[in-house]
Every structure is written in structure tokens, then in C-alpha cells.
Give the backbone structure.
Amino acid sequence: MDQAAKGAAALEAKNFSAAVTHYTEALAINTQAVNYYIQRSTAYTRISPPDYRAALSDAEVALTLASKRGKRELIIQAQLRRAIALFSLDRYADAKAAFDWVKEMNKDEKSLQIWTMKVESKLKGLPEDDVKAQTTIQRYPDVEVPEQKEVKASNIPSSEPKPAISNQKGQATKAEGVQTPVDKIRHEWYQTDDTVVVSLFVKGVPKDKTTIDIQPTCLTVSFPLPTGSDYNFSLDPFCGKVDDAASTAKILSTKIEFILKKAPAGEKWPSLESDAPVTTQENDMDDGGVNEAKRAVLADRSTNAGPSYPTSSKSGPKNWDKVADDLTKKTKKQDKEGEEGGDNGLDEEFEEEGDAVNGFFKQLYSRADPDTRRAMMKSYQESNGTTLSTNWSEVGKEKVETHPPDGMEAKPW
């Protein structure tokens, strides 16, 4: 394994001192390797204690090399490392400029939202003449790339562990800050009719250094780790919308708890996050129902062959068109018999059964169009009787999942 590969492995294993050592040795062989500078810059920001000046130097050399080669992805990575180093050196206006340049080239960079929020919070309230609020950098720095003989290992931090700080009684002082290993940080969630509760389990989060942002469709949180780097957690987008003004967050000794107020209340979230952007009722109403009408008109209503729909049945997919047609024939036959029998029509038959609810659904089914009947049959059977839908354009797309009532649990037969 070469030195660069060893450096990558050390960085992955969070052995940042070793990563600096290996990448330094790799750069002594190839001083033009952009990625080596980027990775060493990352390691410098995460060692304990961090060396932000060295991290900035590596990021600017990487940016210079990447810009000369026109490597867009490497330019973005180097500029991002530069921005983070500048922020860590309290050069907030310079950091904001660098983050803005990253956003111009890649607006989808996931970490930008939290970093932008952190920079703006630092700049807020600073006087204009404060050096931290003044932009002094150019988009591409004017720095010289070190020659091979200039790459030294003299500033490599020692990888030996430092002795624990002891108190007067000779007992080790308890470590401050986050105590949960990064790979052990986890989150869980549950919901009620009105709220979604998310718990991020991590011990020792510093309240005064934590940034939390709750938006109608997402949330982000960032806090420093003992390594000098930041831990960023985000949920984006939510499966539904929340009232950000009524939602709260609490930093406790063992976790961060988010209580998100649903908007609207009573809506069931099938999951915490969604793969698709959240849509709102306002957007659906603004088009006057045009989109729904388009979907209805463009839907394939060919009767040449019954389509197959998603199913978990061992006997294979079921032709719900045929099921609905068969039931339609039966219902029409019953209607005819009811007409011939005069007062023995369907309405009276339902009333005689004594079940008003069941009678209502039978009437609804008997008077529905074929698509509505297919939707009712498919949704009721596939959901094990927990869902009854009349919207075929929705039901026909996928299997209808079982949704048991609150306080109950669905079990396989």
C-alpha cells in the first residue's frame, strides 16, 4: 500500500495524525497531487489540537493547482476546505465569500446550508470596521506550489496520546464536550396526531456552541467534536410539513430532542424523510385541479389487456380490472332484480341488514364508476381492510400498505 492509500485509510479510521504523516510523505514524492493537499487539509482541521493555518495553506495550494488544470470538482472541494479553515480562524467575511463561490459552482453541496447559517450568525452584530467582517481574499489565491525539497515532515503532529489532565487529588479530569463516538451517534423518531418527535442520541453536546435550524420541510443541527471538526446532522426533506415557529428543540445531557409541530395536524407520516420534494395543498389548489385533470386524461384506460399492479401475492399479480368488471356485472344483475321486485330494491335491502355503515359502502360501490370500484376493491384487499380508497389514479400505481389504527399493530397471518 502506497503512502496516499495509507493516508486515506488513516483518515477513514479517524487517525488524523497518521493521515497527515502519510499524505506528507506522499506529497514529498508528488507535489502536484491536488487531492493529497485536500485530504491533508481535512486531516489538519480534525487532529487534536487542530492546525487551521496548515489546513488553510494546503487548501489554497490545492485550489491553485486545481484552477490551473480546470478540474471543476477539485476546485469545489479545495474551495470548501479553504472556507472551513477560514471560518475556524475567525475570518468570517472571508469564509462567507469562499462558501458563496462554492455555492456558485455547486448549489447542491449538502454542507453549505449549515455552514452558511453558522457564518451569518457570526457576522451578525459585528461592527463594519471589525477585521472579522472584512473580506480580504480573492477567488483564487496567489500562492506558490511547494517544490519537492520544500515538503517537510517537521511540522507533523505526534501520534502519541497525550497524558490525561489530572486534578489535585491525582484523579483524571472528566472529558468535556461530546462524549459519544461519531459512529455511535444515532437518531430515532415517533409521531402523534399533532407532532413528530425526533431524538438524536449523543452525550455532552455543548449548548453554547450548537447551531439548530428548523424549517417547514427540513432541519439541520451542527456541534463541535473533540477532534476539532463539526458534526452535522440533517433531515431534508421531511415526509410532511411542520410549523417551524411552533416546533422546538432541547439539548439534554444524553440527547437532542426535536418536537416538530405537524402542519396540518392529524396527518400520518409513513416515514421521517421523503425521497421527493414535499408538496403543499396550496400548490395543488393553485392550478385549479389542472394537474389532477391532466393525470386523469393521460391515464391509460386501454381495455385490450388488463394491466398488472404491484402485489405481494404468491399467486402472481391480480387483474383488478377483471375483478371490478365481474363485480359490476353482479351489481347490475342485482339492480335489475331490485327494479323488477319494486319495493325490494337495493336501498331497502341495505336497511333490512341493519348495518348502516355497511349499507352506505355498498350503495357507494353500486353507484360508482369502474375506476372507483377497482380502487375500492384493490385498496381494501391489499391493506387487509384498513384502507378504502376511491382514487384509482393513486391506488393503481403501487401496493396499498396496511395502516392499523392507533394503538394497534399489524401482524402477518
Summary: Confidence is low (pLDDT under 50) at residues 153-175, 278-308, 340-354. DSSP finds 14 helices and seven strands in the chain.
